[in-house]
Write a structure and sequence with these properties.
Elements lengths: L1 E4 L1 E3 L4 H9 L5 E3 L14 H8 L3 E4 L16 E4 H10 L5 E6 H4 L22 E5 L4 E5 L7 E7 L2 E6 L37 E7 L4 E4 L4 E6 L3 E7 L5 H25 L1 H24 L4
Parallel strand pairs: 1-11, 2-3
Antiparallel strand pairs: 3-12, 4-5, 6-7, 7-14, 8-13, 9-12, 9-14, 10-11, 10-13
Helix pairs in contact: 5-6
Length: 293
């Protein structure tokens, strides 16, 4: 992988952000951006546990999804307070995925404000994500194709970020928003996945209060280095072509894949994995033929 440093700023104006990053669809890390929130000190695991401790939450781990089950089915459930106690006391790969603040803990809506950066937010689904110190999230892009402003709290996190046009080098699985299951982005095997050598992206380390702008369709791999959580604020597609693409992703591609997975189960998953590998291998051979470095 060819990993570059992302642009990093301590603060940014609405005009500079919109012109330099949003319009160009270029990522940027804003250090300590959440410190602007009046309730900044409430963004902690302990505070979440005090407000939502009795809630039963679905948990996911690092293992690939079971082909015989729905991809969004959790591996286990636990009370929020017990989950937070667990990840604070010992290494764990358990994580909480897509915890919608509006539905689960609406009083948190008072503890942050939407930064005025020149674009409109989809305020129905500000979302929390949690992870233990061993948790990681498979390389993927968000199916709704929104622009994301991603805040990190408590523990540190490593993020790998790639533009949409790098999909062929990342071993994208057809009819899916993720890459092949057996590709380890922490210790990449370039012998088994040679096209990955040509993938050009960014490596980012996030700390408490940092915000990362991830443009629409960007691939991202998240690795929790310490127990922590994040909140993602997203925009609604801001153009007709992007809206139509989002509708196609959500209602055509996604449901076609769900239907095929339900019918053929593991055979369908294995077929897509093999097809992803073959497609990326072709890209690798083309780049070698063109003498690309």
């Amino acid at each position: 992988m060819i990993l570059l440093q992302v642009d990093t700023v301590d603060d940014i104006s609405k005009e500079a952000f919109f012109k330099g990053y949003f319009k160009k669809q270029k990522p940027v890390l804003i250090k300590g951006f959440a410190k602007k929130w009046e309730a900044y000190d409430k963004w902690s695991l302990d505070y979440i546990a005090s407000k939502a401790g009795e809630q039963e939450v679905g948990l996911y781990d690092n293992k690939p999804a079971d082909p015989n089950k729905a991809t969004d089915e959790p591996v286990t459930t636990m009370k929020m307070k017990d989950y937070i106690r667990l990840i604070k006391s010992q290494p764990s790969d358990l994580r909480i995925f897509f915890y919608i603040i509006t539905d689960k803990i609406p009083e948190l809506l008072k503890n942050f404000s939407y930064p005025d950066l020149g674009f409109k937010y989809f305020k129905r689904i500000p979302t929390l994500f949690f992870g233990g110190s061993e948790a990681r999230v498979l390389m993927h892009y968000d199916v709704d194709l929104g622009d994301l402003l991603h805040f990190q709290f408590e523990g540190k996190k490593r993020v790998l970020l790639f533009p949409p046009d790098q999909a062929s080098c990342l071993y994208k699985v057809p009819l899916s928003v993720h890459t092949v299951y057996n590709l380890d982005y922490e210790n990449p095997d370039y012998h088994l996945f040679p096209a990955l050598r040509y993938a050009q992206g960014y490596e980012i380390f996030m700390e408490h209060g940092d915000a990362l702008f991830m443009p629409s369709g960007y691939w991202h791999f998240n690795r929790y280095l310490e127990p922590g959580f994040s909140v993602t604020l997203r925009s609604f597609p801001n153009s007709l072509p992007r809206l139509l693409k989002m509708l196609r992703e959500v209602f055509v591609i996604r449901y076609t894949d769900k239907l095929m997975r339900k019918i053929f189960k593991k055979k369908w998953v294995d077929y897509k994995q093999k097809l992803a590998f073959k497609r990326s291998q072709r890209v690798f051979k083309e780049k070698q033929k063109n003498n690309e470095p």
